[in-house]
Design brief:
The protein is α/β, with parallel strands linked by helices. It has one domain: P-loop containing nucleotide triphosphate hydrolases (Rossmann fold), CATH 3.40.50. The chain is 35% helix and 18% strand. The chain contains seven helices and seven strands, in the order βαβαβαβαβαβααβ. A seven-stranded mixed β-sheet has the order 3-2-4-5-1-6-7, with helices on both faces. Helix 2 runs parallel beside helix 3. The radius of gyration is 15 Å and the shape is globular. The mean pLDDT is 94.
Length: 181
């Protein structure tokens, strides 16, 4: 199994930078056996109990489209609790800054020990600074796409260096700086 499927990957970029397209390609290339997509903007989906039922019944892909933070986090926790070496589960967390803005004991356990349950995550969002720093720090790989906000560029600079971070505002859709390379 690809180590991507048991790690935390982040894709940060402004609107229209191609972050969701890139994240979906990364996940499609890794072929997770089961995937939970947390997307509060999705048209169709379910809440955490629907996520549990879908995963337990063996569905390959399930979407949580809840607008409630507790249900978004609950869906991540459900996926983590059901993930095993025999049946690994991956979570694609779109709009991550909306619900991963602060950590909890349960999220900390997932961030620090998820790989032991063969559980991985991809966090996607426009505002990396809005995601709790302790959560952000657990990324094995980060893809930095076009960013315009000075605070977000400063956050990127801490990881990729000031010179490289300055170039983020001029990237075109689909371009990224991968860290580490």
């Amino acid at each position: 199994m690809s180590t991507f499927l048991t790690e935390i990957t982040c894709v940060w970029g402004g609107r229209g930078s191609g972050k969701t397209t890139l994240a979906k390609k990364l996940v499609a290339d890794a072929l997770p056996p089961q995937i939970v997509i947390i997307d509060p903007l999705a048209k169709d989906g379910t809440g955490p109990y629907g996520v549990i039922r879908a995963l337990e019944s063996g569905e390959r892909s399930v979407v949580c489209n809840s607008q409630r933070r507790d249900e978004q986090i609950g869906s991540i926790l459900a996926a983590y609790s059901l993930s095993t070496k025999e049946t690994p589960i991956y979570a694609l967390c779109d709009e991550a800054p909306a619900y991963l803005d602060r950590t909890t004991d349960a999220l900390n356990k997932i961030m620090f020990q998820g790989r032991h349950a063969s559980f991985g995550m991809c966090l996607i969002g426009q505002r990396p600074t809005a995601v709790d720093a302790q959560i952000r720090s657990q990324a094995a790989v980060t893809y930095w796409m076009k960013l315009a906000d000075a605070r977000d560029i400063q956050t990127a600079a801490q990881a990729i260096g000031t010179e490289r971070a300055r170039g983020l505002s001029s990237l075109t859709p689909g371009q990224f700086i991968k860290h580490p390379e």
